[in-house]
Amino acid sequence: MPTENQTKEKTVLEARGITKRFPGCCANEQINFAIKQGEVHAILGENGAGKTTLMNILFGLYQPDEGELFFNGEKVDFKSPLDAIEKGIGMVHQKRKLVQAHSVIENIMLGHPDSGKILNFKRVKKEVSELCEQYGFKLDLDAKVWQLSEGQKQSVEIIKALYRGAKVLILDEPTSALSPPETRNLLDSIMSMVESGLAVVPFITHKLPIVLEISHHVTVLRNGRVTAKFATAGATEKSLAKSMVGREVIIKLDKVEVERGKPVLEVNNLSAYNEKDHLALSGVSFTIHEGEIFGIAGVSGNGQEELADVLAGLRKAASGTILLDGNDITHDSTLERWRKGVGYVPAERNEVGTICDYSLIENVAMNYYFEEEYVPRGIINYKSLRQLTESLIAEYNVATPGPDVKAKALSGGNLQKLILARVLSKKPRLIIVNLPTQGLDVGAIEFVQNKLLQAKKDKAAILLISGEIEEALSLSDWVAPIYEGKFMDIIPWTDAERDNVGAMMAGMKPKVESL
Amino acid sequence: MKIGEHELKLVKRVDLPWWNAMIISIISVIVALILFSLVFVHSGVNPLTGFKEIFQFAFLNRNGLPLTINRSIFIFLCTCAFIIPYRAGLWNIGMAGQLYAGALGAFGVMYLFGAKGDPNLYIAPGIGIPLMMIGAMFAGGAIGGIAGFLRGRFNVNEIVTTMMLNSIGFWFISYMVKEGGPFMNPVGRSESFDLPLSVRAPLVFGAPFTMIVALLLAILLYWVFAKTRIGYKIKSYGLNPLAAKYSGINPQVIPVLVFVLGGMIAGLAAYHYFGAMPGVFKIARNYAEFGDLSFYGIICGLIAQGNPLAAIPVSLLFGGLTNGGRFAQGKLQMGFGVDYALLGVMMITMVVLQFFYRYKIVWIKPEKEISDVGIIR
What we know:
The complex is a heterodimer.
Chain A: E1 11-22, E2 25-36, E3 41-45, H1 51-58, E4 66-71, E5 74-76, H2 81-87, E6 89-92, H3 104-109, H4 121-135, H5 150-163, E7 168-172, H6 180-195, E8 199-204, H7 208-214, E9 217-222, E10 225-231, H8 237-245, E11 263-273, E12 279-289, E13 293-297, H9 304-312, E14 319-324, E15 327-328, H10 334-340, E16 342-345, H11 349-353, H12 360-365, H13 382-395, H14 412-424, E17 430-434, H15 442-457, E18 461-466, H16 469-475, E19 478-483, E20 486-487, E21 491-492, H17 498-505
Parallel strand pairs in A: 3-8, 3-9, 6-7, 7-8, 13-18, 13-19, 16-17, 17-18
Antiparallel strand pairs in A: 1-2, 1-4, 4-5, 9-10, 11-12, 11-14, 14-15, 19-20, 19-21
Helix pairs in contact in A: 14-15
Chain B: E1 2-3, E2 6-12, H1 18-42, H2 47-60, H3 64-87, H4 95-112, H5 125-154, H6 158-177, E3 203-204, E4 207-208, H7 210-227, H8 229-239, H9 241-246, H10 253-276, H11 287-293, H12 296-303, H13 311-331, H14 338-353, H15 355-358, E5 359-364, E6 370-372
Antiparallel strand pairs in B: 1-2, 2-5, 3-4, 5-6
C-alpha cells in the first residue's frame, strides 16, 4: 500500500449516474465514482460486467444515455475520443494501436497537434526522453516498434498519452502481456506518475494482488452496476473476488494427484522457425505422461506459440521428432493429428479457435466435420450436431440464447468454454492449451482450470502454456520456464519457487543448487 | 438526424435475413430505373415508353424472351463460376479466360473427331454432346486450376493471375480461329468451323437443354454449400483461413478445388453459348463480346451474396436488360450504348445500396424505445 500524499484532494474526473443501454441489455446502470488527483483508482469487474462500455464512455467512444461526466469540476460532453484527449484523458488499450514499421518517436509524434507540418524531431526527442526519465521508462526512441516486446510497446503508448498532456490515464488490463520484471517496472512507473499528480485508472479483470498493491481505491462492477467501493487498505483478495463474482471463489487450487501412466508425448530436440524465418524454438526435449500437466511458463513471444503450432501440425518442424503414444507424428498433417488424439486450444479464440460468422453448431463442427458419425458419406447431419452442441452448452455452462447464435455474439469467457468443450469432448490423448485463462474473469478461470484437472484425472496428457506463474505452478506437475526458444530448466512442481521461475522467464540462468 | 423529438440513426446490423437482402436489391433496381429515366428524358423519350419497350421485349416478346433466356443462362453460369471461389474468400476475375479455354476444349473434341469442314459428319449425339461438355469443362477447369494452384501453393494473388490468364486465353483463341489457325472456318471467315448437324444440341421447351443443366446446377450448389462436408470446408476457409487450417482443412487444396470447379462451370458457359445456342454452333466472331459479358458474373454473384439460388433472378434481370436495352436503343433511335448505360447505373445503385446490408436506419422515439422502420424492416 502506497502512502497517501498531499495532492490527492482534488477530484479530476467524476461520473454521476452514468447509464448506457444497448438493445436488450443495460451495459451500465447508474454508475457513480470520483477519481482524485494523484491516486490509482482501479475498476474491477468480470467480462461482461460493463467495464468496456464504461471505458468507452470515459474516452468518448460512446455517449451515455443518462448521467454526466465532470472534468475538474466542469461538466463535459465528449462527442469523440478527440474531445477526451483534448481535455486530458489518455487511454492505453489492451490491443496495441501503434504503427509497427515506424520508430518509437514517430509513433509518439503521430497525431500530436504540435508536431505540425514540419517535424521537429530534435525538440520532441528531448521532451520525450525527459518524460521517460521522469517516470522510469527505458526506451530506445529510434527503435522500430516491431522490434519491441509487448511491455515496451505498452510503455510507448503510455508515453504517447503523457506527451499529449494526459491528466487521467486509463489503462486496459495493463499487466496482461507483461513478464514479472516488466510488471514490476510498470508498477514503479505508475507510482511515480501518481506522485507527480496524475490520476491512473486501471481496468482489471482478475489480477487481484496487483490491485491490492498499487491502488488507493477500487470500484467493483457487476452486471453493469457498481457493487462495491473499497479503500484498498481495508480490502483482501477474497473480499474483492466476492464482490466481483457475487459468491465465494476458491483462489488456491488443490493439487490433483493422479498416478503417472505411460508416456503420451515425447518431444525430442524440436526446433522451428517463426514467420520472419528466425529460429523461434531451438531444440526442446520433454516427455508428458498420462495424467500429467506439463506447464510452460513464459512471456509471449519466446517460442511457446511456435511449439504449440508445431505440435498441432500448423507449423513445420525444422528438426527433431514428435512421438504420440510411441508413434512418430512429426510429419503428420493437422487433420491426422486431430484423428490420432491431439487436441489444441489456441490462445487466439476469435482469430483461430472459432469462426465468428458461424453459428455455435457450425463452430462445434470444426472438430467433427471429419467424423463419419456426424458426417456420413460427406453429408453433414446437422440434427445430431445440434444435439451435441446443446449438450456441450449445458455441460460447460456456456451463456448463450441458443446453439444457432453466431459465435461473435459470445463473450471471451463463453467462447473459451465452447472451444474447450468442443476439444475435450473428443477425449484427446494430448491436450495443448495456450493461455487458457487469459482475459477471463475469476469465475471462468476457476471453471476452465477445473475442466483441465478433470481431463488430467481422465488420463490425458496436458501441455499447458501460461503467461502467469501462479497458474503454471498451481496446475502443473512439471514447470518449464521458456526464454528465447529454450527451456531454462524443467522443474517438478514441488521444487518450483515463484521468484525463481519468474527470473528464468526473464532469461536468468537457473539457480544452481550447491552440489 | 433529428426531426422534432424523433431521431433517425444509423445502426450497424448484426444479421441480414435473406428477405431484407431481397428487399434492398429490389429497391436498388427501382432507384436505378428512376435515375435512368433522366437518360430517356435527355434523349427526348418518355421514360415510361422507354422502360415499356425494354421490359416488353426482354420478357414478353416472342422473339425477345428466348434471347433473354439464352443470355441469362450464360450470365448465370458465369455467376456460378464466380460464386464458388467467392465462398472460399477468393476472387475469380478469370471467367473470360476460362470461357475461351472452354470453347477451345469443346471444339477441340470435335476437331479430333474430324468435324472441321464436314458439317454432315455423323457423330452419335449421345456421345458427341457429353464429350464436348466434358472437353469444355476440362479445359476451363485446367485454366482455373493454374490460378488456384499458384494461390494455394505460393500465395500468389488470384486476381492478378486470373486477369493475366484472361489475356493469354484471348490471344490463344484468336490464334486458333483466325488467319489460318487450326480451328479456322474453312470458308475463310474469322471464326471457327461449324459444328456438324448431328451434335447440335436439342431444344427443351424452345430453349437450349443447358437451361436444365443450369437449374440443376443452382440447386446442387445450394445443397453443397448448405449440407455437405466439402461445402463446409470451402465456407470455413472463406470465412477464416486460419481457423480452417487449425481445424485440419488443407489450405493448399481448397484454392485449387474452388478454381477448378469455377473454371469448369465457366467452360460450361462456353459450351452453352458456342455449342448449344440455336443459330450459333461455332466459336462466333464476337467471342470477345461474350468474354466481356462474363464479367457480369462478378456483379451478379456479389448482388446474390454468393447464393446460387438468388443468382437465378439476378441473372435473369441482367440478361433481360442487356437484351431489351439493345432493342430499345434501336427502336427508339437513341444513341449507342444505352444498354451498357442502364447496366452501369444499376450496378452503381446496387453497390451503393449494399451499404444497407451492413447498416440499418432506426427511428428513435422520444420515449427512447428503439424500433426499426422504413425500408429496412
